[in-house]
Amino acid sequence: MDRIPILKMGRLLLVTIQVDMHDQLAITLQDDLTERIVKDRAQGVLIDISALDIVDSFIGRMISNTASMARILDASTVLVGMQPAVAITLVELGMALVGVQTALNVEQGIRLLERPSD
Amino acid sequence: MDRIPILKMGRLLLVTIQVDMHDQLAITLQDDLTERIVKDRAQGVLIDISALDIVDSFIGRMISNTASMARILDASTVLVGMQPAVAITLVELGMALVGVQTALNVEQGIRLLERPSD
């Protein structure tokens, strides 16, 4: 497993994180994603973390950084499928993911991204 | 990693296989997927294997069985993102995935599933 697939759906990109992220995988994901945002002219990125039971500060920071990178490339990021325990851990770690939108699931995330931005 | 997430998009379900399947993971996926097809009244299942560089006969059979299960639950399966080397291996293994539709990527798979069946 050397890279996480990025799936294109219309003007959106979908990333499903299923495995424990390590440094190199995170860097590759950020490289691939920024490249795809530009190449596919994506207006939104959905990051699904429903498979993650736990997150640590590394993943939290990775998601936060990825959202920032997407933002300066003019794409919005929505984090979907967060489990309750993950929300608790993130806040306890002091990572409130400021500036990252969240949605219950992929469908609602798509709806959020397709809404004209305010 | 004890289960592969199943994402709902309208009447379709999306499964992205990123990790090596082992027996228990495959059984869990088939259990989850059949349950979700019924619960979500899904009319189609997209299985993305773009992250897989290689497949073996176990994965090939698993995909083929999953598609058969979906079919008897009245849902079509489209396998998307297959890499050229995987196609070569599958045919060499004698697994031509008869009855499983394929598409280049998720977008084309969605288009295929949304087309009225002939």
Write a structural description.
Two copies of one chain form a homodimer. By secondary structure, chain A is an alpha/beta fold. Chain A has a single domain (6-114), classed as STAS domain (Transcription Regulator spoIIAA), CATH 3.30.750. Chain A has helices at 23-39, 57-72, 84-92, 106-114, and strands spanning 6-9, 12-16, 44-48, 76-80, 101-103. Chain A has a five-stranded mixed sheet, sandwiched between helices. In chain A, strand 1 and strand 2 form a beta hairpin. Chain A is globular, with a radius of gyration of 13 Å.
What is the N-to-C succession of helices and strands of chain A? EEHEHEHEH
CATH fold title of chain A? Transcription Regulator spoIIAA
Q: Runs of chain A with pLDDT <50, length 5+? A: none
What kind of oligomer do you see?
A: homodimer
Just give the CATH class of chain A: Alpha Beta
